[in-house]
């Protein structure tokens, strides 16, 4: 190979090879450095021999960008820290969501999505639960929120009408599938960092195969879910929507949720909870530390709302210790609350001092309910949000309530300003 | 025809008295007629009664017949209707059952549709809630940004405003100070000017008197003009406020008086000198022009000479170049010839060597043509050598 007699003045003469000689193996690109070649071989054989801890940060970045995204998780989960590799794994699925929703961590996003996908595509009696048992120890440190938006029911095979096997068919029908939907018991107690859990019992994109059963949770499901939730000690937010939850299931769930150590927010909106369920939830209010309760779009009527109000307010002074002291938000919109419950709730408002937000919209409170609320609000100074739209109260009551709410809001802001000032002064002193 | 018979009878028995017979016949006829009439009347009455009875009977019978017919008809119709009833009732029952089934299916469909619509509504509500929460978050972010930017801007503007206010205040103070200082200066300068003015006027009066004495009345006009000029100068000087200029003016005014005398003497001397120098200049100019003309003529002559020499030299050069070209060409031809000769010589040598080799094989017979060839080669060699030597 011949080179120019006087190489030009450049820092790296290897980058400026101009003469293309008669060598058939000559390439225009420069020869890669030895460290890059080593790293490439590390990348190619990462599965058999994962070398990661010994690499310097620059080399780690190089490996991260080139490592195959289909590497088995038991190798990579605990080894590779948060960064470009997990970003590439997430991009494989396409449609990157908002990263701040996942706490700015690609690794967390990947694991949560992976687990959600596995659960959403789990078909009872077809998919092996072993995969979950293997996955859980790998990802339990990274999953903080599980948002499951579909759960597949078991596959029903068409029954053959043959008289010879008539008796056998009967026996098969009695057994039935072992579980109606995914059983969360096998994994929820092992996910030690889980704080939020949303679940919806429905099937997405069923098209013409619509069956009503695909959109309901059954009794067994409720029981297994309740047990699973009870076993997960770090759960803070539980959302169970759109699952056709009636009173019996609600009571069953509440039975297991009593005295849960860390539950802060309970969202059972868009179900079919009636008065008995509301009574059960009232009991729950007294025996746990709930801050937010969302029961919108259920069938709670007068007695149910009264039960909730009693749970919030209480009657005599002797029972004051049993009262709930932590509820901040109560959402009862789109139920069937009428004016007696409004009166009961207004009694609550007079006594309570921690309820910050109350939503009674889309109930038929009527004029009497509106007047009761008006009287109650005149004595209340802590409610900063009160939503009584579409409740058929009078304009006057609504405007009065709104005025009180605005004054409460300004009071709240002033309190905040004072608190921040006192905090500043106290820190300045120190 | 009883009458005819009677008449015939009467006619037959008549032989009696025809009149009695006639009357008898007539009476008998009349009585017969009356009897007939009565019989007829009775008959008609009887017949009428009978007719009436018959009519009533027929009416009654008709009624009975109708009743009987109707009852029979009713019975048959009743039986037919019962049959129809049973058939119809069965069909209606069947239809009712069908409709019941339809109603049930519709109920079920309605329930399913209601459930689906409720489901859709709930899902829609949930989505709306999520979207609303997202929008709320985004709004909060935007509001925070806006508030921070607003705070930044307000702080910047307030600081700018304070700065500008302080600058303005400072400048105002500075202005006041400078005004005060300028006013002070103005007063002092005005006093000085008044002094200078009075001094200068006194000086001028003295100068004026001196001038009048020295130069006489003829120059009075000129002096007046000078005075006026000086007064104007003084006025101009009084309008200006610079002290050094006024001092200079005052001294200059005093000096002017002396200078005027000196200058006048100097003027006369200079005039004399100027005339003499003019004559000198003129003569010098004449000499210089003459010298210049001489020089120019000489240069022209020299140029002519140069040009002639140049042309001659050019001609010589061209001749030389041409000759050299010709020589070069000749030499090149000679060289070519020489090279050809050399080549020929080489070839001859080669051929000689070949011939020698061949001749060594075949001696005697071809020696002579070899010698002739060698002789032919030798003269060829010689002219080849000479031009080579000539070239060298």
From TrEMBL, chain A:
Keywords: Cytoplasm, Cytoskeleton
Cell compartment(s), UniProt: Cytoplasm, Cytoskeleton
This protein's record includes keyword Cytoplasm: yes
Organism: Champsocephalus esox
PANTHER family in the cross-refs: DYNEIN REGULATORY COMPLEX SUBUNIT 5 (PTHR24107:SF27), YNEIN REGULATORY COMPLEX SUBUNIT 5 (PTHR24107)
Highest rank taxon of the organism: Eukaryota
Coiled coil start-end: none
InterPro entries: DRC5, Leu-rich_rpt, LRR_dom_sf
Major location category of this protein: cytoplasm
Protein name listed in UniProt: T-complex-associated-testis-expressed 1
Gene Ontology cellular component terms for the protein in this record: cytoskeleton
GO terms of biological process kind: microtubule-based movement
Automatic annotation (TrEMBL), chain B:
A Pfam family matched in the record: NYD-SP28
InterPro entries reported for this sequence: DRC1/2_N, DRC1/DRC2
Domain Dynein regulatory complex protein 1/2 N-terminal: 27-127
GO biological process, one term: axonemal dynein complex assembly
Renumbered residue ranges of the record's region Disordered: 353-392
Biased composition range(s): Basic and acidic residues: 378-392
Similarity comment text for this entry: Belongs to the DRC2 family.
Protein name: Dynein regulatory complex subunit 2
Organism: Champsocephalus esox (pike icefish)
């Amino acid at each position: 190979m011949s080179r120019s007699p006087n190489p030009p003045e450049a820092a790296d003469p290897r980058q400026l090879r101009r003469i293309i000689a008669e060598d058939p193996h000559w390439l225009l690109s420069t020869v890669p450095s030895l460290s890059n070649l080593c790293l490439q071989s590390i990348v190619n054989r990462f599965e058999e021999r994962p070398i990661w801890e010994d690499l310097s940060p620059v080399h780690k970045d190089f490996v991260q960008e080139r490592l195959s995204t289909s590497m088995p998780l038991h190798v990579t989960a605990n080894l590779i820290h948060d960064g470009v590799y997990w970003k590439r794994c997430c991009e494989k699925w396409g449609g990157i969501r908002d990263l701040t929703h996942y706490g700015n961590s690609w690794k967390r996003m990947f694991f949560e999505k992976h687990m959600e996908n596995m659960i959403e595509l789990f078909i009872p009696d077809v998919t092996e639960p072993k995969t979950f048992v293997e996955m859980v120890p790998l990802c339990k440190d990274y999953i903080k929120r599980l948002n499951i938006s579909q759960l597949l029911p078991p596959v029903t095979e068409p029954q053959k009408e043959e008289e010879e096997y008539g008796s056998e068919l009967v026996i098969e029908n009695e057994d039935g599938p072992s579980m109606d939907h995914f059983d969360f018991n096998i994994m929820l107690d092992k996910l030690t960092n889980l704080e939020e859990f949303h679940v919806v019992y429905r099937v997405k994109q069923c098209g013409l195969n619509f069956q009503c059963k695909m959109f309901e949770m059954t009794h067994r499901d409720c029981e297994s879910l309740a047990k699973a939730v009870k076993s997960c000690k770090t759960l803070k937010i539980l959302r169970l929507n759109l699952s056709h939850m009636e009173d019996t299931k609600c009571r069953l769930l509440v039975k297991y949720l009593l005295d849960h150590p860390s539950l802060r927010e309970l969202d059972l909106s868009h179900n079919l909870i009636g008065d008995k369920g509301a009574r059960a939830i009232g009991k729950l209010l007294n025996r746990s530390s709930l801050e937010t309760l969302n029961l919108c779009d259920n069938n709670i009527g007068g007695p149910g709302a009264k039960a909730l109000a009693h749970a919030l307010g209480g009657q005599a002074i002797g029972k004051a210790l049993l009262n709930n002291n932590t509820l901040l938000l109560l959402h009862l919109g789109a139920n069937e609350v009428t004016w007696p419950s409004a009166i009961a709730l207004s009694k609550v408002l007079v006594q309570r001092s921690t309820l910050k937000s109350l939503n009674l919209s889309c109930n038929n409170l009527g004029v009497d309910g509106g007047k009761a609320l008006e009287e109650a609000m005149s004595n209340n100074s802590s409610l900063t949000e009160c939503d009584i739209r579409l409740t058929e109260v009078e304009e006057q009551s609504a405007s009065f309530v709104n005025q009180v709410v605005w004054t409460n809001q300004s009071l709240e802001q002033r309190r905040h300003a004072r608190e921040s000032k006192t905090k500043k002064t106290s820190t300045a002193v120190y | 025809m009883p009458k005819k018979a009677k008449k015939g009878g009467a006619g037959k028995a008549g032989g009696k008295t025809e009149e009695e017979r006639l009357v008898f016949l007539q009476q008998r006829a009349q009585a017969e007629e009356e009897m007939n009439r009565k019989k007829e009347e009775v008959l008609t009455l009887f017949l009428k009664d009978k007719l009436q009875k018959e009519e009533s009977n027929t009416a009654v019978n008709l009624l009975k017949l109708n009743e009987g017919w109707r009852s029979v008809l009713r019975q048959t119709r009743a039986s037919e209707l019962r049959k129809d009833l049973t058939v119809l009732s069965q069909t209606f029952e069947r239809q009712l059952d069908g409709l019941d089934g339809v109603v049930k299916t519709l109920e079920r469909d309605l329930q399913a549709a209601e459930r689906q619509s409720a489901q859709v509504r709930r899902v829609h509500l949930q989505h709306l809630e999520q979207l609303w929460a997202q929008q709320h978050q985004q709004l909060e972010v935007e509001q925070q940004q806006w508030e921070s930017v607003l705070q930044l801007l307000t702080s910047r503007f307030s600081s700018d405003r304070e700065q500008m206010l302080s600058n303005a205040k400072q400048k105002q103070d500075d202005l006041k100070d400078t005004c005060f200082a300028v006013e002070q200066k103005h007063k002092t300068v005005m006093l000085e000017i008044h002094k200078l003015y009075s001094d200068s006027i006194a000086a001028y009066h003295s100068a004026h008197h001196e001038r009048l004495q020295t130069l006489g009345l003829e120059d009075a006009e000129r002096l007046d003009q000078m005075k006026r000029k000086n007064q104007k100068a003084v006025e101009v000087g009084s309008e200006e406020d610079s002290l050094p200029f006024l001092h200079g003016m005052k001294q200059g005014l005093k000096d002017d008086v002396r200078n005027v005398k000196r200058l006048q003497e100097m003027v006369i001397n200079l005039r004399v000198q100027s005339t003499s120098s003019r004559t000198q200049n003129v003569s010098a100019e004449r000499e210089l022009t003459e010298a210049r003309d001489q020089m120019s003529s000489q240069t022209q002559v020299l140029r002519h000479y140069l040009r002639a020499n140049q042309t001659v030299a050019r001609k010589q050069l061209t001749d030389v170049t041409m000759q050299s070209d010709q020589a070069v060409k000749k030499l090149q031809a000679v060289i070519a010839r020489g090279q050809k000769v050399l080549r020929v010589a080489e070839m001859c040598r080669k051929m000689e060597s070949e011939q020698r080799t061949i001749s060594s094989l075949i001696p005697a017979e071809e020696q002579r043509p070899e010698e002739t060839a060698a002789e032919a080669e030798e003269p060829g060699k010689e002219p080849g050598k000479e031009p080579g030597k000539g070239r060298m």
